[in-house]
Write a structure and sequence with these properties.
about 375 residues, alpha+beta, 2 domains, Elongation Factor Tu (Ef-tu), domain 3, about 30% helix, six-stranded antiparallel barrel, disordered N terminus, eight-stranded mixed sheet
Length: about 375
């Protein structure tokens, strides 16, 4: 690269960053994504969500599973429940050997191939956090015969926090949380981070409340727990709320990358909010889906229809609560899901915010009931 090109790159990066900041609140998204909080251990992310919601709702509470529930009172309209999960994938400490090396039990679905040589935080039971490195219990590549090189298995991974065995055991015990160590960064027109799944949807839920106008609906915004291990927080929250309409916010696969065929893309970055038709957990209510499409068309909000072959969202629990509820998922297309480099386009995030805000303004204007002719 020519020396004269270096300042030009700096100016370009700064310009793009300023433009993204004008579209969304990067600072809030960064705080949400970087906070540690695996399923069942959402204590650090919870106060950030409470603080962001406090001025936007009439009531706020936390239930026994740790769900944050905000209520924006309406005026005779339907009860609308919006759910986005706070928990991220991570680990529990499962064993500490004599030398102080830590073994891991997964909390959520990981591909071991993306974990080798990653950095993590080990959150000790005394309140101190230790940075560590994930390594593979195997000979280094220099000593391996080509026939010995195989894909890693999760049980072969361990964490080294740089302390001797006695010092590790004095500060860390079985059941302590291990979270991934990575910051949110702006990359081109995207943001890239750990735990966009599903902190970007928490962000979307908060910003939609800020962006919406008047509504007759009674709106329940729920930052749910333990989604990554079975949609658990949404189930109990929905049972208590008994909503008339249920909306899950989550990320979805954007397989618009090398190695995928066009028919396998699911969604594509930059093409707008994903309107889910179905996934492994639920089939979106067709009348509710149609209503969202009409609103998107009316307000020229870009969207794409999504069929996810595997995976689920909180809508799967909400749809089946009590006597059932019309449910849908709004999806934010994301590359490299369940890695530390989850990537989403800022314009797609904004499209999701705008569509949800416009829907909430008109919630109750259509019926989703079936009738006997």
């Amino acid at each position: 690269m020519r020396g004269a090109d270096i300042p030009l790159l700096g100016v370009c990066t700064q310009s793009i960053g300023a433009e993204l900041l004008a579209i969304i609140n990067i600072d809030l998204l960064k705080r949400l994504c970087e906070a540690p909080g695996i399923a069942g251990r959402e204590d650090t992310i919870r106060p950030i969500v409470v603080d962001a919601l406090r001025s936007l709702v009439d009531e706020i509470s936390v239930d026994i599973l740790g769900n944050v529930i905000g209520v924006k009172r309406g005026n005779g309209g339907p009860k609308v429940m919006i759910a986005a999960h706070m928990d991220e994938i991570g680990f529990f400490v499962s064993h500490i050997d004599e030398q102080g090396f830590i073994r891991l039990h997964p909390v959520g679905g990981f591909d071991p191939r993306v974990l080798v040589a990653q950095r993590v935080f080990v959150h000790g039971f005394k309140g101190e956090t230790f940075r560590g490195a994930i390594a593979l219990a195997a000979k280094p590549i220099h000593l391996l015969d080509p026939s010995e090189i195989k894909p890693p298995k999760l049980e072969e991974l361990f964490v080294d926090i740089g302390l001797m065995g006695d010092d590790v055991r004095a500060n860390v015990e079985v059941g302590d949380m291990v979270s991934l160590d990575r910051t949110l960064e702006e990359v081109g027109r995207t943001v890239i981070s750990k735990s966009l799944d599903d902190r970007v949807s928490i962000f979307t839920m908060i910003e939609a409340l800020r962006a919406m106008g008047d509504s007759s609906a009674e709106i329940y915004v729920v930052a749910t727990t333990q989604e990554e291990v079975g949609l658990r927080g949404a189930k109990t929250a929905a049972f208590a709320i008994d909503p008339d309409i249920s909306i899950a916010l989550d990320i979805t696969l954007a397989m618009d990358i090398p190695g995928s065929q066009p028919q396998q893309a699911v969604t594509r970055l930059g093409k707008g909010v994903g309107l889910k038709i179905m996934d492994s957990s639920h089939i979106s209510h067709p009348k509710l889906l149609k209503h969202f499409r009409e609103i998107a068309d009316q307000h020229t909000i870009p969207y794409q229809l999504e069929l996810l072959p595997r995976g689920g969202t909180d809508a799967g629990s909400m749809q089946l609560i009590r006597s059932g509820t019309p449910a849908i998922t709004l999806s934010i297309p994301t590359r490299y899901v369940h890695t530390v480099n989850e990537m989403a386009v800022v314009d797609d995030i904004d499209a999701t915010i705008q569509l949800l805000a416009r829907y909430l303004e008109t919630a109750g204007s259509q019926s989703y009931s079936y009738s006997i002719d």
